[in-house]
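ok, trying the design again with the full structure, not the truncated one.
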């Protein structure tokens, strides 16, 4: 064993003995096992492609049910979810669709259908995170219904955020009131994440297993909104001069990718906690029980038919064989 491997194994042993360290590393490792970066990129892409159609749907629906002032407040709050770049979107904000009732229904249906990629990708990400076997994953009708519920939750969250923003404005800029407003925003985001996780995650997963990740994601997202302006400005500082208008796209994609990663890490935390998938090993052999369980779940998630059965086996490593020999020959 060379020096580098000895150092890595020493660190590995330390994180395995630490309850918190082992749990955090298990979440990070599970994120990598499930191809989390690829899932985050997919969510960011579909989020970018769905943003403007969904804004158009939102403005059109609001134009029918609320007065223009409330409509403008909701749209402003929605754009506020994208620090810095949201103000640039607002300069050329979409306007409500006009025309006959039939034309509006057809147009809105087309916009929603064209934006379903985001909800479908989010559902796929949740099934991958939880390693749900393909044979028990929801079919297309159920996924479509879940997608519409996802959009309804997002729209309701925007309306509630608008009301909360109005209360914060009435309350003034005092430190205590701002703290109360932030706590209320965190509670709203936690509730939104819990509802979204429940809608996007297959029913075989208990709702109680989704709560810790919703709390983490809601708090982290609220913190990101608070410091998001600085983060995006840092991303755009040099890109604006080099790429011009492309910097707007880069900044928006970076923000969406960051939010997607936060959401997936929170979902991974739910899985690790619910299935006790820690500690994990940094370097193998040996494979720990949690390592074997994760690898087994990944393979079994590929089952596509009820009559298909997938089995997973592991070769015994040197450590396991030595322990078995010691038990069978205690006198040696």
């Amino acid at each position: 064993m060379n020096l580098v491997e000895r150092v890595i194994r020493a660190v590995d042993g330390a994180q395995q003995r630490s309850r918190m360290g082992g749990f955090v590393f298990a979440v990070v490792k599970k994120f990598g096992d499930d191809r989390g970066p690829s899932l985050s990129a997919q969510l960011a892409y579909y989020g970018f492609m769905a943003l403007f159609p969904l804004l158009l749907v939102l403005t059109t629906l609001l134009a029918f049910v609320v007065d223009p002032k409330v409509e403008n407040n909701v749209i402003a709050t929605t754009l506020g979810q994208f620090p810095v770049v949201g103000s640039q979107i607002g300069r050329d904000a979409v306007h409500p669709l006009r025309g006959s009732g039939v034309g509006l229904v057809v147009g809105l249906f087309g916009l929603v259908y064209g934006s379903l990629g985001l909800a479908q990708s989010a559902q796929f990400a949740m099934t991958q995170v939880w390693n749900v076997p393909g044979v028990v994953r929801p079919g297309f009708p159920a996924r479509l219904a879940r997608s519409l519920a996802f959009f309804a939750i997002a729209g309701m969250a925007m309306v509630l955020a608008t009301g909360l923003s109005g209360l914060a404005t009435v309350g003034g800029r005092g430190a205590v009131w701002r703290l109360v407003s932030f706590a209320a925003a965190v509670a709203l985001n936690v509730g939104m994440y819990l509802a979204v996780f429940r809608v996007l995650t297959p029913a075989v997963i208990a709702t109680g297993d989704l709560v810790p990740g919703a709390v983490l994601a809601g708090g982290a997202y609220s913190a990101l909104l608070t410091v998001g302006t600085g983060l995006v400005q840092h991303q755009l500082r040099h890109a604006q001069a080099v790429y011009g208008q492309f910097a707007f796209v880069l900044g928006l994609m970076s923000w969406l990718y960051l939010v997607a990663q936060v959401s997936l890490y929170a979902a991974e935390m739910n899985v690790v906690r619910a299935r006790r998938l820690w500690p994990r090993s940094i370097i193998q052999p040996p494979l720990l029980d949690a390592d074997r369980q994760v690898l087994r779940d990944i393979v079994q998630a590929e089952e596509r038919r009820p009559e298909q059965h997938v089995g997973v086996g592991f070769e015994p490593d040197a450590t396991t064989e030595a322990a078995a020999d010691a038990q069978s020959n205690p006198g040696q």
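Keeping the full-length input from now on. Residues 320-332 have pLDDT under 50 and may be disordered.
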